[in-house]
TrEMBL record:
<dbReference type="InterPro" id="IPR036282">
    <property type="entry name" value="Glutathione-S-Trfase_C_sf"/>
</dbReference>
<dbReference type="InterPro" id="IPR040079">
    <property type="entry name" value="Glutathione_S-Trfase"/>
</dbReference>
<dbReference type="GO" id="GO:0005737">
    <property type="term" value="C:cytoplasm"/>
</dbReference>
<dbReference type="InterPro" id="IPR004045">
    <property type="entry name" value="Glutathione_S-Trfase_N"/>
</dbReference>
<feature type="binding site">
    <location>
        <begin position="143"/>
        <end position="146"/>
    </location>
    <ligand>
        <name>glutathione</name>
    </ligand>
</feature>
<feature type="active site" description="Proton donor/acceptor">
    <location>
        <position position="209"/>
    </location>
</feature>
<feature type="site" description="Lowers pKa of active site Cys">
    <location>
        <position position="267"/>
    </location>
</feature>
<dbReference type="InterPro" id="IPR010987">
    <property type="entry name" value="Glutathione-S-Trfase_C-like"/>
</dbReference>
<feature type="active site" description="Nucleophile">
    <location>
        <position position="84"/>
    </location>
</feature>
<feature type="domain" description="GST C-terminal">
    <location>
        <begin position="186"/>
        <end position="310"/>
    </location>
</feature>
<dbReference type="Pfam" id="PF13410">
    <property type="entry name" value="GST_C_2"/>
</dbReference>
<feature type="site" description="Lowers pKa of active site Cys">
    <location>
        <position position="310"/>
    </location>
</feature>
<dbReference type="InterPro" id="IPR047047">
    <property type="entry name" value="GST_Omega-like_C"/>
</dbReference>
<keyword id="KW-0808">Transferase</keyword>
<protein>
    <submittedName>
        <fullName>Glutathione transferase</fullName>
        <ecNumber>2.5.1.18</ecNumber>
    </submittedName>
</protein>
<dbReference type="InterPro" id="IPR036249">
    <property type="entry name" value="Thioredoxin-like_sf"/>
</dbReference>
<dbReference type="GO" id="GO:0004364">
    <property type="term" value="F:glutathione transferase activity"/>
</dbReference>
Amino acid sequence: MTNSSSTAKTPSKGKSLPPKLIIKLGKTIWSTLWHQMMSKMAPRNQTGDYIRPASQFRNSVGTQPDNPYQPEAARYRLYVGLGCPWAHRTLVVRAMKGLEAAISVSIVYPDGDAGIWALEDSQQGCSTLPELYALAQPGYNGRSTVPVLWDLKTNTIVNNESAEIIVMLNDQFNQWATHPDLDLYPESLKAEIDQWNDKIYHRVNNGVYRCGFAQTQQAYETACTEVFDTLDEIEEVLETKRYLCGNQLTLADVRLFTTLFRFDIVYYGLFKCNRRRIADYKNLGAYLRDLYQIPGVADTCNLEQVKQDYYGNLFPLNPGGIIPLGPDISNLLEPHERQIGALGNAP
């Protein structure tokens, strides 16, 4: 009988790399590619902290005699991506003010392979957002971002800064608004609203991106600490106030809302903001439900598109492209019990 062990073929030496070397080589290659892709997607400073480039189109709709962009119904269009929190702000204010008939909307979708926004339908001879930007400004080579407030009369971009667009939507189209009496940026509260906006933008709205796009451990930990320190501060404020500035809904709440809506869905996991969920906060969780249940707001919230845009298109953060099944957001329809008087706040 032949000994099976003596006839079995032994692996040839020198035909494969040791596993340890394979892993080290793979990590080196992936790390190099990751930093290259991140540098294009998310500019950084020397410490690895994400630096968001400034918006480039900063004109305003207004009634000044010399302003070429006068308020008119059906003259302006919003280009938005449903997954983008900055674009989402404009949809929320449009819904709250009841401007659906006055301001049209075109949806754009991310092209993950090209790293650009693609138009749902070709418009003005353009099929992508960069082409639309080039139409507005020939030779433009900057970032092509949403939202865009587009002037259909002159075929150009009026503004692509969400913080400024929502101010225009709040006060320049009241003649055509269903809710013209709703003022989200009242003169008496502007200073307080601006203070909240400055803090929330850096530490929360952009803070979650500074976590997700951080390219060093130190940059991530600094950003993550700021995010949750600020959320903890807001949690305390909301113990006695229905909204950030008291009993009146303002643009500060709108700007915070679109980040809070996405927090447990994508920022908690994909962006590593995982010290706590918004659902784990007593006041913030109820505040999110309160805002979500304002008539028209839930219709602007597209859970599946948010997941698709983040998990499906931010390749450096999710190379496998797997879209999570959850979370279940039906809890946003549960009672919030934040009506005036319920928190000890005066009517």
